[in-house]
Amino acid sequence: MSGFQKIGLIVIFILALIYIKLAFFGDVELIQPNKIDKQQSENVLDNDIEKSSDDVDKNKNKNVKNKKTEFVNVFFIAHNAKGEEVYRAVKREYNSSYGTKIYFAVKTLIIGPNKNEKEHGVYTEVPSGTKLISLDETSSKITINLSSDFENGGGTDSLYKRLFQLIKTAKMNTNLPIYLQINGKQVDVIGGEGIMLTQPLSEDFEND
To answer: Same domain for 55 and 109?
Structure first.
């Protein structure tokens, strides 16, 4: 076989390889980019799902324009300019992840004033060990169920004040009648001194 014949065979072989590649693999480079885009999209979704709740909330706040901030009023105790003891309504930004406004308000009342409020003379007569066992809401009434710690300690004057704090806070955040339970039982008499309560609660209970 002459040299020209060998070169001819090599050329034919190379052309055959090119033909086979184009015939059977010509679309590979066109398909691959679409596969990459799909995978990238799935990665974006995975990253979004893995974000912490704080980051998600921040992103939501950035995307929602003119979102109205809601507040609840919680009643603590302070002194006015004359040195008189008064009930002071403190505004707290409402966080709907904790439930309804009245639940959030009562829960905030039980937790008590924050550090800044305490530094400005705001305090509470609600005992620190008090727990909100439950808060049941229906279309006709609200039932607040507190632990027995609520009625312990501090004497009659303190008990009156904490009752006023609870009633004022609840009534500020709902128009429904409010009933009070201690450890799951509705109370008509509360505390060691036997303060009489009329249910549903009202601010003039001391005159009943």
So the answer is: no
